[in-house]
Structure formats: structure tokens, C-alpha cells
Write a structure and sequence with these properties.
Layout lengths: L4 E4 L3 H12 L4 E4 L4 H5 L6 E3 H9 L4 H6 L1 E3 L1 E6 L2 E6 H4 L5 E3 L2 H15 L2 E3 L3 E6 L7 E6 L2 E6 L2 E4 L17 E16 L9 E5 L2 E7 L5 E8 L9 H11 L2 H6 L5 E15 L2 E2 L2 E3 L5 E2 L7 H22 L8 H23 L7 H14 L2 H12 L8
Parallel strand pairs: 1-2, 1-12, 2-8, 5-14, 12-19
Antiparallel strand pairs: 3-7, 4-7, 5-6, 9-10, 10-11, 13-16, 13-17, 14-15, 15-16, 17-20, 18-19
Bound molecules: flavin-adenine dinucleotide and 3,4-dihydroxybenzoic acid (DHB).
């Protein structure tokens, strides 16, 4: 087989890249090692930056997101019972975020993929990139016991944090930066009305909590738990009790509880590799970087990598700009490091690390400092709604 861009991974990064390239007449094949059903069962992100929404529009797949997604002009931060409203739209000159689940985004992108006529292979085994440094890279894989080869111009590694692309780069080429936090987030999804229209990030004496949502009838809540905590130890009742202890009293009083649809623990980690490319193979999204979820940047950073590579490839194919592909990593990393820093900062300010330590007192002081006046709240708001994408020139 032959294609222009072989995309490894059918998560939001791979699917969005494939759809955008398709709208520009650039052929691509998507490979994933699992089934579409498996991918759609993952419960992950929920807060979408304006830049991501605009990319979905450009890809022609935003119709349901615009109809069903909730536009949020504010976000609340509660610190030891006291609410602080961050008015995103006023502070950023008109920007907002959209609440729309990653599952729904993936669904919309898969529907568009099926309608596009572009080829995808699911349940593909032993997917392997080859000759990435040459101008004739290729990918091999097995499907239903048969071996296949795809010759291509470029390989897009959109295969998440446990994928094959990053490890296939020779040792010594990549530099890895990592920070592991001493806690995780226990998340619960339930078909109950959310405790508030707005999202509430909570810093309490018992630790961090987040009240989020997927719709007016579906809630997503998180509580900070120690890294070695096991989800089996958390009955739904125990989760609701702990959440009530952490959120402000008025919110606890109106919280509607119910059976969980999903409950899981995600460890918190900051991780970046440099560079985000090896010859004609590019790394995008979780394949290149992981952020702790505080601030909702993981999926949004994947979208900004897609934006960068997509615009570079369009200029390469349509304007003959052969110089640009070598600059993908340098351009993508500037925005990635901003997102990594913001997520690290939000995580540091809002979580308990070591009870009664001087660091925890300093964290209290830092959040109070940033919430105290408008120009400091603006710094938070501008990053929460997402910094602008860099223009490719
Ligand atoms: P993925 O979604 O991981 O997709 C990668 C795809 O590649 C997968 O379909 C996988 O099957 C495929 N693949 C892997 N290996 C291979 C292989 N060898 N061959 C072929 N295919 C392969 N972000 C937020 O912004 N907010 C959140 O609340 C949030 N919560 C999260 C909770 C959890 C538990 C996790 C794990 C992540 C969360 N994230 C959150 C992060 C966000 O979901 C990710 O940043 C986002 O999924 C990245 O998209 P991606 O397409 O880069 O990778
Ligand atoms: C969600 C997750 C986040 O990390 C966040 O900052 C906001 C919302 C969510 O899953 O809804």
C-alpha cells in the first residue's frame, strides 16, 4: 500500500490529523492496535479550548459539538470554603471553553472518517515504523494473520504514552524530562445532575477535588488520593462522602449522588521528550508529552500539535515548503512547554503534598495571591482558555 501520511494511533490526535489532511486532499491511513469500540469506552478529558473547537470546525466535524457542547464563560476555584469566580470571557477579551467529552469528540471524528473514504485499520498488530530518517519511510503491521506494508512520505506518531513510535527512535536521540507527583486522581462518572453549572476546582484541608460535568444530566467528579490507593477500596458511598467533605458546605448540601458509571484512578505525571520528531516521523499528543490533568491541558495540547503538523504538511505539499517539516518539533515544543508549566503550576497550587509542611503553606499563599486581584486572575484565565496557536510562516 502507498499513502502520503501514515498515522499510527486512532485517538483524538490521529483522527483529527487524518480528517484535517483529508479536507486538503492529502491521503492518509490510520492504524490502531485496538478496536473502535475499545477506544470509545475510554472516559477522559472534558474541557476543550477555543482553538480545538476552531480546528474541529475547520475539519468539518464540529456540528454536534456546537449543538450539544456547553460554552463556559466562567470557572470557580474554591479555597477553604471561599469561592473565587474566574470570569474567563471578561478577563480574556471574549474567550471561553467548551465542555464536551473526549468520547464524543472521538465519536464525531470516527463518523467523519467512515464517511471520508480514507482507509483505517483497527486491531492492527505489531505496527512498526521503519526508515524514519530517510525520505522513504514505511510502516509494517499484521492484520488477521497477514503482513502488510505501507510506503509513505511521513509518519505521524499519535499512539499515546504506551505506543510504539517513541520507543522505536534509537537510544540517545531523545531527552526525557519527567516529574511524578505523589498522588493520583480518583474519578467518578455518574448520571446525576452536576452540583453546579460551572466547574469548581476545590482546594481543601483534605486535599484537592474537582466538580466537573459532561452535560446537564451527567457529572464527573475527582478527588486527590495517595499514589498507592486502589480503586477497589472506594465504594461509591465512600467516594461521595469524601467529595462532600472536601467541597464547600453549600455545594455538599445540594450534591446529588447516584451509582457510578465509571470509576478509576489516574496517576499524575509531567513528561516531555525532546525533540518531538525523528527525521520524517513526528510525535504528537501523549506520544510526546503527558501533563497532570489539573487545568485540562492534555487533550488540548494534542490538538495544538495536530494544528502545527497539519499546517506544516499543507504548506509542504501545496507550496513546496520543504524546509518546514524539520521545524515541527521546535514550533510544537514552545506551546507544549507552556501547557506543561501551567498544569504543573495549577497542580502545585491546588493539591496537598505534605500536610502542615512549609511548602503547603506557601501553596496556600500562592493561590491566594493569584486570586486576589484582576490582573493576576487574568494570567490564570488566559492560560486556562488556551494560548493562541503559533502561526506557521
Ligand atoms: P490517546 O488518546 O492515548 O490515543 C492513542 C491511540 O494510539 C490509542 O487509540 C491506542 O490504542 C493507539 N496505540 C497505542 N499503541 C499503539 C501501537 N503500538 N500500534 C497502534 N496503535 C497504538 N486530558 C485532559 O485534558 N483532561 C482530562 O480530564 C484528562 N483525563 C485523563 C484521564 C486518563 C485516565 C488519561 C489516561 C488521560 C486523561 N487526559 C485528560 C489526557 C487526554 O485524555 C490525553 O491527553 C489524550 O487522550 C491524548 O490523545 P492522543 O490521541 O495523543 O492519545
Ligand atoms: C475535567 C478534567 C480536568 O482535568 C479538568 O481540569 C477539568 C475537567 C473533566 O474530566 O471533566
Amino acid at each position: 500500500m502507498k499513502t502520503q501520511v501514515a498515522i499510527i494511533g486512532s485517538g483524538p490526535a490521529g483522527l483529527l490529523l487524518g480528517q484535517l489532511l483529508h479536507t486538503q486532499g492529502i491521503d492518509n491511513i490510520i492504524l490502531d492496535r485496538v478496536s473502535p469500540g475499545y477506544i470509545l469506552e475510554r472516559i477522559r478529558a472534558g474541557v476543550i479550548e477555543q482553538g480545538f473547537v476552531d480546528l474541529m470546525k475547520e475539519a468539518g466535524v464540529a456540528e454536534r459539538m456546537l449543538r450539544e457542547g456547553e460554552v463556559h464563560h466562567e470557572v470557580d476555584i474554591a479555597v477553604h470554603e471561599e469561592y473565587h469566580t474566574i470570569n474567563l470571557t471578561e478577563l480574556t477579551g471574549g474567550k471561553s471553553v467548551t465542555v464536551y467529552g473526549q468520547t464524543e469528540i472521538t465519536h464525531d471524528l470516527m463518523d467523519a472518517r467512515n464517511a471520508s473514504g480514507q482507509i483505517s485499520f483497527y486491531d492492527a498488530k505489531n505496527v512498526t515504523p521503519h526508515d524514519m530518517k530517510s525520505d522513504k519511510p514505511y510502516v509494517t503491521f499484521e492484520k488477521d494473520g497477514e503482513k502488510h506494508r505501507i510506503d509513505c512520505d511521513y509518519i505521524a506518531g499519535c499512539d499515546g504514552s504506551h505506543g510504539v513510535c517513541r520507543p522505536s527512535i534509537p537510544a540517545g536521540v531523545l531527552k526525557e524530562y519527567e516529574r511524578v507527583y505523589p498522588f493520583g486522581w480518583l474519578g467518578l462518572l455518574s448520571d446525576t445532575p452536576p452540583v453546579d453549572y460551572e466547574l469548581i476546582y476545590v482546594k481543601s484541608d483534605e486535599g484537592f477535588a474537582l466538580c466537573s460535568k459532561r452535560s446537564e444530566t451527567r457529572s464527573r467528579y475527582y478527588v486527590q488520593v495517595p499514589l498507592d490507593e486502589k480503586v477497589e477500596n472506594w465504594s461509591d458511598d465512600r467516594f461521595w462522602e469524601e467529595l462532600k467533605r472536601r467541597i464547600p458546605d453549600d455545594a455538599a448540601a445540594r450534591l446529588v449522588t447516584g451509582p457510578s458509571i465509571e470509576k478509576s484512578i489516574a496517576p499524575l505525571r509531567s513528561f516531555v521528550v525532546e525533540p518531538m520528531q525523528y527525521g520524517n516521523m513526528f510525535l504528537l499528543g501523549d506520544a510526546a508529552h503527558i501533563v497532570p490533568p489539573t487545568g485540562a491541558k492534555g487533550l488540548n495540547l494534542a490538538a495544538s500539535d495536530v494544528n502545527t503538523l497539519y499546517r506544516i504538511l499543507v504548506k509542504t505539499y501545496k507550496e513546496g515548503r520543504k524546509d518546514l517539516t524539520a521545524r515541527y518539533s521546535e514550533i510544537a515544543l514552545r506551546r507544549v512547554w507552556n501547557g506543561v508549566r501551567f498544569s504543573w503550576w495549577m497542580t502545585n497550587m491546588l493539591h496537598h503534598f505534605y500536610r502542615d509542611s512549609i511548602e503547603d503553606k506557601i501553596r496556600d499563599s500562592e493561590i491566594s495571591f493569584f486570586l486576589a486581584c484582576e490582573h493576576r486572575r487574568r494570567i490564570l484565565a488566559e492560560q486556562y482558555v488556551g494560548l493562541p496557536y503559533e502561526e506557521i510562516v
